[in-house]
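Input chain follows. Return structure tokens only.
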Amino acid sequence: MTAIYIDADACPVREEVLRVAARRQLAVHIVSNGSRPIRPPAQVDVHMVVVPPEPDAADDWIAQHIGPADICVTADIPLASRCLGAGARAVAPDGHVWTEANIGAALAGREVSRHLRELGLSAGGGKALSKQDRSAFLNALDALVTAAQRTRAALNFRPPPEAE
């Protein structure tokens, strides 16, 4: 079964993911370090995973468990890269789909931004999600679920034994 992994500590689209998962009958793993209590949803096949409050513990858990027919919801570019490396799909809360074609530039841009912040030349902080962002996220997630389920079907396909 295709599963969705949510990097949950700062994820503004948890409710949207849960609605899609319920409609498409998908498992969901909500991974958090427990620093912000997350109320477990009363939904079948939703698993709350609380990892130690160490840097990257949630990312490490997701990267260790995600598979080729799964999806990760994260704004964390390095985690998205790790998920892509495992053959999975990744989408940001604003609907940006991470791919092999764009992840390298995103990682490089993240490093440049980090360097500018260290030099005091950049004020951090992102913009709040708009209704358009949430709509783009839902469209992207639905497309990724369809693609992931095709991958799952292909992985599970076993040709019949050849007749002798």
